[in-house]
């Protein structure tokens, strides 16, 4: 049974400079809608004063609830935790850095009342540096080409999901989470809303190049077998090239009346076979690593504190 209409979920990692504005803007939007709601802030192992600020929000406003992790488990895991604890008929997920404008929530709710069960925000324009804009653009288009499901272009985690979708997401046990991909995989009636993604309100971006690469690999390897097929195809192509190269070398040696260089032949064979093997091992290793994560059976996250939730 739910005890509110909406659950607003925001993962938080070292966002002390943004939290006051985040709380104010979410509160203004939700109170303007005149409905019951909870605000779930998930502290993903912050090292600044973010947790203390969120606790203060709860003391002043019991609609604010806090999940505090024992360490940094990552944004996708923090979103998953918020969904796990959400009590609303619908959950609204947005970033804590205010690049996702809370003012779009009203339009999402309108679409939800029209019967849509997943309303995701599509980034029409990004106010970020050229490298990030280019990287994201390439990632979404490569993922769409490789994926076996239809993942919308330029759609991030900012979304509203119905209680039916929440139940489905909570039933999925996989460890390497790519929420926007899983959200597409479960189906239901979905629609996108375009918006301009704002600049970060304050502070430094938390997604380093390594974290972006991890997110990209989770998206690709969790929703596509194409890398395995590409590896097989590349192996066949390189083997064919190597075979043809060796044949031409021998033919040239016969007609030129001199023996082909044995060193060149061995080098060609070693490079071709070595490249094929390393590519294949790397791709297979990505998949096996994910299987290894799943079979260990460790929890997706560990909570240090739960503030504002009914303790069972």
General description of the model:
This protein has 312 residues and is an alpha/beta fold. The chain has 2 domains: 4-204 and 300-307, Spore Coat Polysaccharide Biosynthesis Protein SpsA, Chain A, CATH 3.90.550.10; 226-296. The protein is built from 10 helices and 8 strands. The chain has an 8-stranded mixed sheet with strand order 7-5-6-4-1-2-3-8, with helices on both faces. The chain is elongated and about 90 Å long. The mean pLDDT is 77.
Give a topology summary.
Elements lengths: L3 E9 L6 H15 L3 E7 L6 H11 L3 E6 L5 H11 L2 E6 L11 H9 L4 E9 L3 H17 L8 E8 H9 L7 H7 L4 E8 L11 H14 L3 H30 L6 H35 L6 E5 L5
Parallel strand pairs: 1-2, 1-4, 2-3, 5-7
Antiparallel strand pairs: 3-8, 4-6, 5-6
Helix pairs in contact: 9-10
Query: For this entry, what is the oligomeric state of its chains?
Result: single chain
Helix proportion of residues, in percent?
Answer: 40-55%
String of helices and strands: EHEHEHEHEHEHHEHHHE
Number of domains: 2
How many β-strand runs?
8
Global shape:
elongated
The main pleated sheet reads as: 8 strands, mixed
Query: What is the H level of CATH, i.e. the homologous superfamily of the largest domain?
Result: Spore Coat Polysaccharide Biosynthesis Protein SpsA, Chain A
> Which radius of gyration do the C-alpha atoms yield?
25 Å
**Secondary structure tally, helices:** 10
Structural class: alpha/beta
- CATH-assigned fold name of the largest domain: Spore Coat Polysaccharide Biosynthesis Protein SpsA, Chain A
Q: Largest beta sheet: what is the strand line-up? A: 7-5-6-4-1-2-3-8
Query: What proportion of the residues form beta strands (DSSP E)?
Result: 15-25%
Unreliable stretches (pLDDT < 50, length at least 5) are none
Identify the CATH architecture of the largest domain.
Answer: Alpha-Beta Complex
What's the CATH C level of the largest domain?
Alpha Beta
Determine the N-to-C terminus distance.
15 Å
Averaged pLDDT: 77
